[in-house]
Amino acid sequence: MDWGTLLGAIVGAATAVGSTMLADYTRHRREQANRVHDTLRDLYSAYLAALNDSSTALRVIILRESDATARYQAALDAFRDASVLTQRYRIALQAPPAVQEKSDRAYRLLRQWRDLLNTHPDLSLTSPEYLEGLERFHQARKDLQAAMRGSLAAAGR
Where do transmembrane segments lie in this chain (predicted)? Predict the structure, then answer.
């Protein structure tokens, strides 16, 4: 028996198995990164949509509702209906810490903005308190979006 032929066959088989395993591992890692990216993208989109729905509802309530008690109750209902808190919990479970921090800030500012309807019954779209709360919320949302983009870029690698 020729040992060279046997050794060549063993080395060839090991090389083939090794390269197949490496290709499978690389494909698995790429697919896993794509799943993480897609999950985060969907999560971030849902949270931003909930924030947007709530902030839009607050503006509509200020325009349409004149009774202070009904106004604040409508704001609470809109906040709940937009599922902001539910989406925030999902962020807390799945997003990286930098996004969680920005998410919490945007949520707190939106909630403070909502609560202005309770503490300032005569609030209007031109009130200084309203405009200040709106600006702070918009800045927090921009910061959150930047953190989300960074997270998605890192997840896509």
Answer: 6-25
Give the DSSP letter of residue 7.
H
Is 112 a member of any domain? Answer: yes
> Cα(112)–Cα(127) distance, rounded to whole angstroms?
15
pTM for this entry: 0.80
The answer to whether residue 97 is domain-embedded is: yes
| Number of separate domains in the chain | 1
Are the CB atoms for 110 and 47 separated by under 8 Å?
no
* Any domain includes 1: no
Residue 13 placed within a domain:
no
Q: What is the CATH number of the domain that holds 62?
A: 1.20.120
